[in-house]
């Protein structure tokens, strides 16, 4: 088994949650953490690799300066690390809801160029360019993570599940406070990672 810690989705993101009615968009944080699997939608850096969850922010797909009316619209929010959110700024980039990032770019996980990210089409080129996903430090860090995780895998080391698994504070979306005024996709709570954990069906790791 060869795990890929930087595997972009093969299809556009389909929302499984639909909360609405919060007074500030920051209240959507627990929903977005679950929605985007506790990692940055752009660079795939995971919460479990960071010192603190404050490294992650709620990014407006269409910037507030361009569409202030969408400021508190859940469908316009994604989960992003601070670095990617800062680089994106108010730019309008290809949305993960409109295109499959896995068809736009890929991270090499073997060979001489392990850790390098490659554009597979014009959307991928723009994402890599605007977010500096091919910056030397980012590429070197990806390489380190890939090689470290692969070494754990070869030794069947339990640390593998910590590096590729879930954070300890998975949010219970059925009891978040404050609760949303409405939820167009209530069944999404039954499919949340917390619900799977409660039912004993949470996987040890995910790609």
List its traits:
single chain, alpha+beta, 7 helices, two-stranded antiparallel ribbon, 207 residues
Structural summary, described in words:
- By secondary structure, this protein is of the alpha+beta class.
- 29% of the residues lie in helices and 10% in strands.
- It is built from seven helices and six strands; from the N terminus they run E-H-E-E-H-H-E-E-H-H-H-E-H.
- It has helices at 29-35, 82-88, 101-104, 122-131, 136-154, 159-164, 193-198; strands spanning 19-20, 56-60, 77-81, 105-107, 117-119, 182-183.
- Strands 1-6 form a two-stranded antiparallel ribbon. A two-stranded antiparallel ribbon has the order 2-3.
- The model has no long low-confidence stretch (mean pLDDT 94).
Q: How do the strands and helices of this protein lay out in sequence?
A:
Elements: E1 19-20, H1 29-35, E2 56-60, E3 77-81, H2 82-88, H3 101-104, E4 105-107, E5 117-119, H4 122-131, H5 136-154, H6 159-164, E6 182-183, H7 193-198
Antiparallel strand pairs: 1-6, 2-3, 4-5
Strands ordered across the widest β-sheet = 1-6
User: What structural class do the secondary elements suggest?
Assistant: alpha+beta
Unreliable stretches: none
Helix content: 25-40%
Mean pLDDT, to the nearest integer, reads: 94
| Discrete helix count | 7
Strand content: 5-15%
SSE series: EHEEHHEEHHHEH
Q: For the terminal residues, how far apart are their CA atoms?
A: 12 Å
Q: What is the makeup of the main sheet?
A: 2 strands, antiparallel
Radius of gyration: 17 Å
Topology, number of strands: 6
Mass-distribution shape: globular
């Amino acid at each position: 088994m060869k795990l890929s810690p930087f595997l972009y989705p093969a299809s556009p993101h389909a929302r499984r949650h639909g909360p609405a009615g919060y007074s500030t968009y920051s209240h959507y944080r627990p929903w977005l953490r679950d929605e985007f699997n506790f990692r940055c939608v752009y660079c795939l850096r995971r919460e479990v690799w960071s010192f603190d969850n404050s490294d992650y922010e709620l990014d407006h797909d269409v910037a507030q300066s361009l569409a202030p009316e969408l400021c508190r619209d859940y469908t316009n929010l994604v989960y992003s690390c601070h670095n990617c959110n800062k680089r994106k700024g108010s730019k309008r980039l290809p949305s993960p809801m409109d295109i499959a990032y896995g068809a736009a770019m890929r991270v090499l996980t073997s060979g001489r160029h392990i850790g390098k990210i490659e554009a597979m089409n014009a959307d991928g080129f723009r994402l890599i360019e605007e977010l500096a996903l091919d910056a030397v430090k980012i590429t070197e860090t990806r390489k380190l993570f890939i090689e470290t995780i692969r070494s754990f895998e070869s030794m069947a080391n339990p640390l593998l599940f910590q590096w590729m698994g879930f954070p300890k504070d998975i949010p219970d979306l059925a009891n978040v406070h404050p609760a949303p005024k409405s939820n167009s996709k209530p069944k999404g709570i039954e499919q949340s990672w917390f619900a799977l954990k409660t039912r004993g069906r949470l996987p040890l790791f995910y790609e």
